[in-house]
């Protein structure tokens, strides 16, 4: 579980830092990817999509670290998200004729490593089956000897007979419980 927490926290830190960078410096971050933001709407889109989405993922990963039962789904989400980004890069290279093989190589390698580490952490966490609750045996006898009557509007609960003086409970006394 320690390795899984490390992977989740490391990914959360990277995503939170990138989110902050896209919020504070959207033009510079876009330029790193070969994009030029010409309109205010483009800057807003960069902050919302790249900054906001990564912040949401980082917060989800931090939330998942706090409970062991949430770590496996978070690792699966991380594997699927990063694998989809790697697949998107590979499909993009194929569609573009492979002209940009070295363009985003560091980012692609980072995502491949993230998939590998998250997958290893997911495999390392064993799902522990929860113990089955004790089975309750069905009642073999009825408390009331009469068969139940159907409920009708206006029915009141049956009257409770007062307990006799001999069977009434006694107040608790400190000391000997039998006295």
Outline the fold blueprint.
Layout: H1 2-24, H2 26-32, H3 40-65, H4 68-95, H5 105-124
Task: List its salient traits.
single chain, 179 residues, mainly alpha
In a nutshell, what does this entry contain?
The chain is an all-alpha fold. The chain contains five helices and no strands.
Explain what this protein looks like in three dimensions.
α1 (2-24) runs antiparallel to α5 and α4 runs antiparallel to α5. The longest helix has 28 residues, at 68-95. The chain has a domain at 2-124. It is built from five helices and no strands. It is mainly α.
Tell me what portion of residues adopts beta-strand conformation: under 5%
Radius of gyration: 32 Å
- Percent of residues in helices comes to 55-70%
Tell me the number of helical segments per DSSP (H or I, 4 or more residues long).
Answer: 5
Structural class: mainly alpha
- Could you say which overall geometry the principal axes of the C-alpha atoms support? elongated
Number of strands: 0
Mind describing the biggest β-sheet?
none
Distance between the termini: 53 Å
């Amino acid at each position: 579980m320690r390795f899984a927490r490390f992977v989740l926290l490391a990914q959360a830190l990277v995503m939170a830092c990138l989110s902050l960078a896209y919020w504070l410096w959207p033009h510079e971050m876009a330029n790193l990817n070969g994009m030029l933001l010409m309109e205010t709407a483009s800057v807003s889109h960069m902050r919302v999509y790249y900054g906001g989405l990564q912040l949401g993922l980082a917060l989800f990963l931090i939330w998942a670290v706090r409970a062991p039962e949430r770590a496996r789904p978070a690792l699966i989400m991380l594997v699927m998200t990063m694998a989809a980004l790697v697949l998107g890069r590979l499909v993009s290279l194929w569609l573009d004729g492979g002209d940009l093989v070295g363009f985003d190589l560091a980012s692609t390698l980072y995502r491949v490593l993230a998939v590998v580490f998250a997958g290893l952490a997911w495999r390392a966490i064993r799902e522990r089956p929860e113990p089955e609750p004790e089975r309750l045996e069905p009642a073999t006898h009825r408390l009331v000897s009469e068969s139940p009557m159907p409920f009708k509007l206006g029915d009141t609960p049956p009257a409770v007979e007062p307990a006799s003086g001999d069977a009434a409970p006694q107040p608790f006394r400190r000391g000997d419980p039998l006295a």
